[in-house]
Design brief:
single chain; 254 residues; mainly beta; Porin
């Protein structure tokens, strides 16, 4: 039972949700940074730390603690804008094996349009095997997304797909954020609806709300956030309630 439960557990974890950005042409002030902190297609360099607490699972008498480190690096290649994002997850405790969990890397090539921007690129995920018993340790696929801003609203959709051996997973992340002013924002957070093609079913249907604040500490732009989430998919091994605490260092003008 441990292997199926661990797989379900991993599918239910946050896979490095995206953050939100603002349209080009604005100054990098607090409000604009708050927008950029919410957009997967934004050219904003950032270092992100996240602590995740799962106090309750569906069908399991267990809880879990996880840590995540993520870097977002915008760059230009062949006269096009790109965003390279690397996410490293670590399981501190829980029903899955403690230690290094999945590592995800994607590169999004971004194109500006009059209505907003869209991006496309490859995404890869490493699932470290434990004691050499895992046959599926690497998955690869396409990622695509779009984001637009109107007034205080930012909205869009981001899709990632991973395939390898008996792994076939697609995730959809809605991007909806509203700027409250003074660096405060509310958003849908990192909720990713995950579909398992091998099972022909959704294995993750989270709904949540993220509250964030962009501020300056000693001249360094930072973002704090809290993101409670409930998973509507009732399946053994999946998180039922999740709370994420985030801290980011932001680099304006990147």
């Amino acid at each position: 039972m441990k292997r199926p439960v661990e797989r379900a557990f991993r599918q239910g974890l946050a896979r490095g949700g995206l953050g939100v950005a603002a349209p080009s042409g604005f100054a990098d002030d607090t409000e604009e940074l708050a927008r950029k902190a919410a957009d997967p297609t934004a050219s904003l360099m950032s270092l992100n730390l996240r602590y995740t607490r799962i106090p309750e699972f569906h069908g399991l008498d267990a809880n879990a603690d996880l840590s995540q480190f993520q870097t977002v690096l915008p760059f230009r290649a062949w006269n096009t804008s790109n965003i390279l994002r690397t996410t490293v997850n670590y399981t501190n405790s829980g029903p899955a094996t403690d230690g290094l969990a999945d590592v995800t890397v994607f590169n999004l090539t971004v194109f500006d349009e009059r209505w907003g921007r869209w991006g496309v690129g490859p995404v890869a995920q490493l699932l470290p095997g434990k004691d050499g018993k895992s046959d599926n340790t690497f998955a690869l696929g396409p990622a695509v997304g779009f984001v637009a801003s109107r007034g205080r609203w930012t909205y869009g959709l981001f899709n990632q797909n991973l395939f390898a051996g008996d792994i076939g997973i697609s995730s959809l992340q809605p991007v909806i954020a509203y700027q409250l002013g003074n660096g405060w924002a509310v958003a849908t957070g990192d909720a990713q609806w995950t579909y398992d093609w091998e099972r022909s079913a959704f294995v993750n249907l989270p709904v949540g709300l993220l509250l964030s604040k962009v501020a300056s500490i000693g001249g360094q732009s930072v973002k704090w956030s809290i993101n409670p989430e409930y998973n509507l998919r009732d399946q053994q091994g999946l998180p039922k309630w999740t709370v994420r605490l985030g801290f980011s260092l932001l680099v304006p003008g990147s």
